[in-house]
């Protein structure tokens, strides 16, 4: 990777005092080389100092973590971006706080990873910052947490399996959340509400198109798919709220890889959730619609905040998280000239809870950007890219070792 001037740090976690930020630092401590020069950044010196003391006491053999005081002023973000090779940001809602952070990283050629799920904001960031990031050789990977790293990598694994074993592309991928136990943090809840306060209906509509983030437009035609179906491999399936955000990243990967030719020119993709029977399928379909509609209206946002907000900086307790898990399953159909094209099946199984999974994906993406020169992202050199452009056997091995198993096979 081209490095211009030496930087004080290899990696900085910005938002390190928050719920996801703390889990991210734990992943840095457990899953990066002990010689990594890193810092935790945020606006509260006291909170940062306490965390740094704890980390340095528990991990005496690592290069000590340092603290970096930063707020969201232009000057502060410039100082932050120019002091590190890579920045992980967990300061959200990103649509409210994140634009200046990405802009500074793009301008200073600083690699960047985050865990936003706010695809209207990512759509805007691509328009504003992709070119600068590419020119300055900053690899920027948004949506690299629960949304949308596991399924972007899972889709890549399916396509690679079919390419390697059958020598052709893929015509369709269907994913389902097979099993999920978890709860949302205050930051995630607030973000869901805030997106609808900051993006106009027109922006929401534009950025929801399946190919909104794809560098190749128009993307392949997506036929209508019933929101409730039965799949012979995945079971009874119904709508899932993350389909739009995950799909937008998958189609950016689709377009970044040989202009859509690697995945397949007629590639289609959809994500559902598995349910046990048809009645649940209908009930969940209605619940998903309500989850999408409520944040659109200010009085309903107010009511939702009053009734359901977990509290700022709060999230599932350590004990609760130990019982949380997630597994997705997916099926890809080979683009073969046959009445019965062959298929591949993937399990994307996290033995850790969704928030630790988010932290793991961001930290291993950062590791890959800093240390692996054999990825598509490294070849492209910079720009707003996707988790799948970091795919490598080493990344899959490190994720597997830490709790995310992605296994694809022909069925
Ligand atoms: N989509 C996914 O897969 C996924 C998964 C996990 C998290 N997330 C996203 O990650 C974000 C963080 O969630 P969370 O639950 O960790 O939130 P949180 O606990 O509220 O943490 C927010 C962090 O941002 C910092 N911050 C807020 N305003 C700031 C400002 N003006 N200047 C500097 N720092 C500021 C906070 O600092 P203080 O401690 O000083 O207040 C804190 O460190 C949310 O947007 C959430 O949606 C997404």
From TrEMBL:
Give the residue spans that cross the bilayer.
278-298
Q: Does the keyword Membrane apply?
A: yes
Residue ranges annotated for the Saccharopine dehydrogenase NADP binding domain, each copy included: 12-140
Q: Which UniProt keywords apply?
A: Membrane, Transmembrane, Transmembrane helix
* Top-level taxon: Eukaryota
The positions making up the signal sequence are none
Gene Ontology CC entries for this record: lipid droplet; mitochondrion; plasma membrane
Q: Which residues form a coiled coil?
A: none
Can you cite a GO biological process for this protein?
A: glycolipid biosynthetic process
- Pfam families hit by this protein: Sacchrp_dh_NADP
Provide the family line.
Belongs to the saccharopine dehydrogenase family.
What is the name of the protein in this document? Similar to Putative trans-acting enoyl reductase Rv2449c acc. no. O53176
According to its UniProt entry, this protein's organism is Pyronema omphalodes (strain CBS 100304)
């Amino acid at each position: 990777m081209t490095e211009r001037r030496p930087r004080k740090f290899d990696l900085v976690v910005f938002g390190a005092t928050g719920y996801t930020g703390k889990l991210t630092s734990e992943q840095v401590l457990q899953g990066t080389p002990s010689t990594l020069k890193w810092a935790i950044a945020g606006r509260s010196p006291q909170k940062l100092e306490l965390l740094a003391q704890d980390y340095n006491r528990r991990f005496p053999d690592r290069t000590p973590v340092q603290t970096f005081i930063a707020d969201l002023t232009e000057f502060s973000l410039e100082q932050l971006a120019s002091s590190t090779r890579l920045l992980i940001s967990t300061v959200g809602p990103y649509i409210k706080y994140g634009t200046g952070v990405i802009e500074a990283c793009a301008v200073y050629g600083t690699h960047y990873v985050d865990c936003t799920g706010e695809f209207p904001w990512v759509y805007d960031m691509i328009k504003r910052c992709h070119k600068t990031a590419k020119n300055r050789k900053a690899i920027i990977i948004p949506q690299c947490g629960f949304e949308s790293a596991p399924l972007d990598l899972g889709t890549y694994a399916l396509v690679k399996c079919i390419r390697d074993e059958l020598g052709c592309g893929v015509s369709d991928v269907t994913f389902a959340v097979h099993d999920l136990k978890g709860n949302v943090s205050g930051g995630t809840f607030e973000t869901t509400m805030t997106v609808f306060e900051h993006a106009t209906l027109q922006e929401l509509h534009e950025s929801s198109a399946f190919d909104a983030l794809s560098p190749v437009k128009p993307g392949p035609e997506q036929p209508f798919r019933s929101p409730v179906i039965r799949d012979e491999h995945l079971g009874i399936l119904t709508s899932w709220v993350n389909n739009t955000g995950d799909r937008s990243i998958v189609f950016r990967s689709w377009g970044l890889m040989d202009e859509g030719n690697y995945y397949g020119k007629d590639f289609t993709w959809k994500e559902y959730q598995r349910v046990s029977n048809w009645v649940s399928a209908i009930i969940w379909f209605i619940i998903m619609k309500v989850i999408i509609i409520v944040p659109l209206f200010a009085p309903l946002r107010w009511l939702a905040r009053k009734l359901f907000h977990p509290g700022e900086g709060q999230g599932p307790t350590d004990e609760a998280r130990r019982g949380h898990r997630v597994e997705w399953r997916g099926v890809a159909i080979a683009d073969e000239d046959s009445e019965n094209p062959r298929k591949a099946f993937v399990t994307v199984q996290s033995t850790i809870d969704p928030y630790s999974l988010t932290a793991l994906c961001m930290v291993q993406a950062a590791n890959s950007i800093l240390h692996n020169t054999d990825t598509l992202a490294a070849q492209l050199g910079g720009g707003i890219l996707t988790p799948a452009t970091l795919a490598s056997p080493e990344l899959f091995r490190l994720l597997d070792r830490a709790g995310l198993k992605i296994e694809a096979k022909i069925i």
